[in-house]
Design goal:
Helices cover 42% and strands 17% of the residues. It has 394 residues and is α/β, with parallel strands linked by helices. It has 2 domains: 6-203 and 376-392, Rossmann fold (3-Layer(aba) Sandwich), CATH 3.40.50.2000; 212-374, Rossmann fold (3-Layer(aba) Sandwich), CATH 3.40.50. The strands form 2 sheets. It has an 8-stranded mixed beta sheet with strand order 3-4-2-1-5-6-7-8, with helices on both faces. The chain has a 6-stranded parallel beta sheet with strand order 11-10-9-12-13-14, with helices on both faces. α6 links the parallel β6 and β7. The longest helix is centred in the C-terminal third of the chain and has 18 residues, at 357-374. The protein is globular, with a radius of gyration of 21 Å. The two termini are 25 Å apart.
Length: 394
């Protein structure tokens, strides 16, 4: 319908084969908003956030009712070099120019996307930016701040202390947060004043009858198992999780397997009891979640954790890193999981979940109710529409 207002969505990567919490959220929201808006996504040709290598064709395509415009990344990232440069800045005196250099090195460096947004900004009823951290959001908000909505997907990390982000958080006209702890964190760092802001969250959908037995047969899973789903990366707490699991396994001869699904961003683990199954499509991921005894979420830095909520929706309790305020908040609000702050606590809480079946089932049912009450798409989309209209009014 041509009379629908035009909405731009700016995000660093986009597509059905692109994994990542913020990217998945952007696609899920963009596709569902096509009933109300003519949605155009401005993004890059990258699939891989480590290098930002151009893999997808430049130009325009339609995906899920959304017009997707892809722009060429002009510089690939050398992650080791970038990390060395980051270490020189974190916690040390430096100049604004150093932070802007850091932003460019981090990428994705796509000045053509920013130029396109600046040239076409008057065509859009509103512009929605996903993820505060990256070049397209920082420079895109400078180019088109007038009717902007930022979905920052923030967690407490060193770059959040950079002065350039004080500048950036002053630009949006409205904010959509994923959780109450995320909103509290942002308000503690930046003066949002009376600009419209609320916890919008994400809708969680799971199949009514996940094919658990088919999943077990396909991957030769015969017994109980724990599941980690997501990017397998040291930065996501995976190295520590594997170490803690090995410690638990050394004291429990009946320890379930730990299955890992998702994209590898570290050497493939080879420890006893650990199996990497690769990247699985969404229906098979749901089956893997539904069959697990416990979903492990070891990241100390999370702004939402879709996987934890998907596990809750399927009645599976979580065991999460207590250093993440968001993950701990989910478990406490839902009464749907436990959390650990050390190796000893990991061993103790995992043992409790595995050996106390009534507790495990009760936590799972609590999580299921929590998702049903708070993360239905009709409720979530109403919040996003309200914030988009608030941004559009300037």
């Amino acid at each position: 319908m041509a009379d629908r207002p035009a909405l731009a969505v700016v995000v660093q990567r986009y597509g059905p084969d692109v994994t990542g919490g913020s990217e998945s959220l952007a696609r899920a929201v963009a596709e569902r908003l096509t009933a109300d808006y003519r949605v155009t996504v401005l993004t890059t040709r990258a699939r891989d956030y480590v290098t930002w290598r151009n893999e997808l064709p430049a130009g325009t395509e339609r995906l899920g009712g959304v017009e997707v415009k892809r722009f060429t990344v002009e510089e690939q990232r050398d992650l080791a070099d970038f990390n060395r440069f980051s270490d020189m800045l974190y916690g040390r005196p430096h100049r604004r120019e150093d932070e802007l250099d850091w932003l460019r090195r981090q990428g994705p460096y796509v000045p053509s996307l920013v130029r396109e947004l600046e040239a076409s900004r008057e065509e859009f009823h509103a512009v929605m930016f996903f993820t505060y951290l990256y070049y397209p959001t920082f420079w895109g908000l400078e180019a088109a701040p007038e009717r902007s909505l930022l979905v920052p997907t923030t967690h407490d990390e060193p770059p959040l202390r950079f002065g350039i982000y004080r500048e950036m958080f002053a630009r949006p006209r409205a904010f959509a947060f994923l959780t109450a702890p995320e909103e509290a964190l942002v308000r503690s760092r930046f003066p949002l004043a009376d600009r419209p802001a609320k916890v919008a969250g994400i809708g969680v959908e799971t199949p009514p009858s996940p094919g658990v037995e088919a999943f077990r047969a396909r991957h030769r899973v015969s017994g109980r198992y724990l599941l980690y789903a997501g990017r397998i990366d040291a930065g996501k707490g995976c190295v520590e999780m594997l170490d803690f699991y090995a410690r638990y396994r050394s004291g429990d001869p009946q320890a379930p397997e730990l299955l890992l699904i998702g994209n590898l961003a570290m050497p493939e683990p080879t420890a006893a009891g650990v199996r990497y199954l690769g990247y699985l499509p969404e229906p098979e991921k749901a089956a893997a979640l539904a069959g697990a005894d416990v979903v492990l979420c070891p990241s100390p830095f999370e702004s939402l954790s879709i996987v934890l909520l998907e596990g809750f929706a399927l009645g599976v309790p979580g065991l999460v890193n207590a250093r993440s305020a968001v993950l701990q908040d989910h478990c406490r609000r839902a009464n749907g999981g436990l959390y650990y702050g050390s190796a000893d606590e990991f061993v103790e809480t995992l043992g409790l979940l595995l050996h106390d079946e009534p507790l495990r089932r009760a936590l799972g049912e609590n999580g299921r109710r929590y998702v049903g009450d708070n993360y239905r798409w009709d409720v979530v989309l109403a919040r996003y529409r309200e914030l988009i209209e608030a941004a559009a009014s300037g």
